């Protein structure tokens, strides 16, 4: 699974933007069209889901 924290979109309307800032609709489009970088989109959407449900791992001290 690709790590999207620092991954940058390299195509289209959102070229140059980090995957963490892309609209969910764009990420969903990437998955739905079987885009070659759909795994980045899938990983980011899952990360957002975990964040929304407070399931992100807390940083270790």
TrEMBL record:
Region (Disordered) residue spans: 40-61
Organism listed in the record: Pseudoalteromonas arctica
Compositionally biased residues, Polar residues: 52-61
Biased composition (Basic and acidic residues): 40-51
Protein name: Orphan protein
């Amino acid at each position: 699974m690709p790590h999207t924290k620092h991954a940058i979109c390299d195509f289209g309307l959102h070229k140059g933007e980090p995957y963490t800032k892309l609209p969910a609709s764009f990420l969903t489009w990437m998955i739905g069209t079987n885009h070659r970088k759909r795994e980045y989109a899938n990983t980011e959407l899952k990360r957002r889901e975990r964040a929304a449900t407070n399931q992100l791992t807390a940083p270790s001290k």
